[in-house]
Amino acid sequence: MNTNNIKKYAPQARNQFRDAVIQKLTTLGISADKKGNLQIADAELVGETMRYGQFDYPKSTLTRRDRLVKRAREQGFDVLVEHCAYTWFNRLCAIRYMEIHGYLDHGFHMLSHPDNPTGFEVLDHVPEVAEALLPEKKAQLVEMKLSGNQDEAIYRELLLAQCHALHRAMPFLFEAVDDEAELLLPDNLTRTDSILRGLVDGIPEEDWQEVEVIGWLYQFYISEKKDAVIGKVVKSEDIPAATQLFTPNWIVQYLVQNSVGRQWLQTYPDSPLKGKMDYYIEPAEQTPEVQAQLAAITPASIEPESIKVLDPACGSGHILIEVYNVLKNIYEERGYRARDIPQLILENNIFGLDIDDRAAQLSGFALLMMARQDDRRIFTRDVRLNIVSLQESLHLDIAKLWQQLNFHQQNQTGSMGDMFAENTALAHTDSAEYQLLMRTLKRFVNAKTLGSLIQVPQEEEAELKAFLEALYRMEQEGDFQQKAAAKAFIPYIQQAWILAQRYDAVVANPPYMGGKGMNSELKEFAKNNFPDSKADLFAMFMQNAFSLLKENGFNAQVNMQSWMFLSSYEALRNWLLDNKTFITMAHLGARAFGQISGEVVQTTAWVIKNQHSERYQPVFFRLIDGREEVKKSDLLLRKNIFDKFTQHDFKNIPGMPIAYWIDLPSL
């Protein structure tokens, strides 16, 4: 797709949304001085009005304003601004995508008007939209419309109601009523110079046709931040901006089709799936010995619902979208009912982790949009996605939350004494659930730095799953304290459960960061846990993925080519050649990522099996010349193919480089 419009608009949008959020925070008495020091104005009750500094708000805003003050003190002013700016940017981008595709239930455009370049279609249909979104206020909104001068107030009500309506399907992106971010929705939304105009006018409708527009918007939204932190020691909160890179679609297809697709074709070689995968690479002719070895480990049958795929650095979900496409074909081949397939895939097959809250929001959104294409009722099915932004446990008041959770019913329900007790001894701290909770929370103290490199023992998977289900029940059925405590604990148990599972395929474009960019926590963790791959974050992700795989599962990634040749990765190569099996590689070199110019990023895409067969002959493609389109074309046409090497042959080359193109007689 053409990304020029997005590239121009998104960086400007970040600055516009940040400025708008700062302006709104200032009116709430929350600001920072020139040195970045937080300034909080006193809240003063004047009649039925709250006065924050010089500005008056309804008294009902106090609780939400207090939450913003708390966040500003915990996170810092700039982090709060960044978070709230991208929250509204993400929400409005999501609504824009849905209105263009006709996915809003009331059927009208929320941010634009099909017949009026500066209008809003919902304002022409207030009775119908109010009936759908805000029936209890319908009469009031219609009366306001008839007055002729309250469009801004009406529009604000309808837009917030739209966000509330989308909460059921997308709670990760749209909060329930009384979300504090609502106070920061920019002003003057219906004016011709509104912050919405850039979103509507800056990106034409044809650019919104594919869901990958969401990923491109995000990549360019953070581009200025990325430029600002590259080359420096990176703080935890800046790691996403420094390391995220949107993967070209053809590379994604190559990785997914040769891992997820390959697993299916090993068991069902005559499957019609093969004809739908342009980048699937047929295996080289193998010796009878290798063929027998492969036959012995190939399952006789596979149930589609049992296939589990993880992207441990999922970003905005581009890889998982292709996983969805391949799995959808597999389900259809097996005769599943079309409307059942999307929910089955989202709940059983696809898992994603990231350290970036906003990227995970967009990843979940992109997958739901894929599902919405195939099931028009998906938003009403209460789908429970397995896409998680890893959260840190450092700031939790664990003792208080455990007491409120009352997991073993140790407190008398309804006891006001229990509710306000300060020094009550914790009960059931010897229980399996409490011990599991404490082990889990300890693992995630530095989750925003270490991400999915954090290891959770597979033996805890069943226990975590059972505890997670119990927490979900308490979130729905418990008293108000239990609901709040369960909601607080669920993210940690869910992310631990995802990391405790083992997958049929791990597919990723992992973060790239050398030792010079690593902060002290990451550097120490690398040294202690990944001695063979500590030189770069991508190599640690490469090695760690095998610990997340089932035996015979596929590790499929695109990363820097340096691990193939440099002496600092010789131990890693030796470990791979002794323990794993190379299946296929597209050696891309420079200029495979069209958005990056020059020779700096030289990459390779590969699929390696979590099983060892030293006489297996992988299929390599040498695509180091030319620009992205040339590489893509050469891979499609199977040019520059090398398939005569066995795994064992690389061991005969000094230093064991993956030099697949040299002549075998020279070894």
TrEMBL record:
GO terms for molecular function: nucleic acid binding; site-specific DNA-methyltransferase (adenine-specific) activity. GO terms for biological process: DNA modification; methylation. Residues 348-590 form the Type II methyltransferase M.TaqI-like domain. Keywords: Methyltransferase, S-adenosyl-L-methionine, Transferase. InterPro entries: BREX_1_PglX (IPR047939), DNA_methylase_N6_adenine_CS (IPR002052), MethylTrfase_TaqI-like_dom (IPR011639), N4_N6_ade-DNA_methylase (IPR050953), SAM-dependent_MTases_sf (IPR029063). The keyword Glycoprotein does not apply. It is an enzyme of class 2 (transferase). It catalyses: a 2'-deoxyadenosine in DNA + S-adenosyl-L-methionine = an N(6)-methyl-2'-deoxyadenosine in DNA + S-adenosyl-L-homocysteine + H(+). Pfam families: Eco57I (PF07669). Its EC number is 2.1.1.72. PANTHER family: DNA METHYLTRANSFERASE A, DNA METHYLTRANSFERASE YEEA-RELATED. This is site-specific DNA-methyltransferase (adenine-specific). The gene is pglX.
